[in-house]
Amino acid sequence: MIFAHDTEHALAVVVDLINTGPAASGTERLDGLPALRDFVRRNAFSGVTALTAADLDHVRDLRDRFHAVFSAPGVPAAVTLVNAVIGAVRATPRLTDHDGYDWHVHFFAPGAPMGEHLAADCGMALAYVVAAGELDRLRVCAAPGCARVLVDLSRNRCRRYCDSRTCGNRMHVAAYRARRREAGESDPADAGAPAG
Fold first, then answer.
1. pTM greater than 0.85
2. Which helix (H) or strand (E) holds 95?
3. How open is the CA angle 173-179-185, to the nearest 5 degrees?
4. pLDDT value at position 96?
5. Cα–Cα distance for residue pair 90/112, rounded to 1 Å
6. Which residues contact 81 (CB under 8 A, 6 or more apart)?
7. Cα-to-chain-centroid distance, residue 61
8. CA end-to-end span of the chain, whole Å?
């Protein structure tokens, strides 16, 4: 594990949040309160009270601000972006061991609205990444046509695709076919194709 469990969980939440947006996925997947409730459920948030339209607006704004960190041209720009997020929230760090997890730190105040919850915990997770000199672990998928983001937590920093089953598999198959073409071999997938 590169970061503490709570930090890695918050980074996974950031990735999931960014990938709900049109800039990453091509469509708006946080298109209303039911979608926001699903996001909260999917990411096992604790202490989230009733969600409102204001929460949805705040979460979408944070999504754009977090996305900007992934495309920051360098550490100084990322620092400015992260500081703007965490500086705008009243952080109340406290240790907790809820829901069967070992002791970890929450940075949001008890009962805080969803946006403050995200800004505090996810903003601090991004701050830890930058402070550890690991900004290059925040990436955009390397597959052509995919703009989804990922956090590379692999030991040797080799993760390039948002999902190994979709983008990764598609790119490996394309590379295999290109090697076969270069070697002058026919592609078994083309064997049943009609001549044209």
1. no
2. strand 94-96
3. 105
4. 77
5. 9
6. 65, 68, 69, 72
7. 15
8. 52
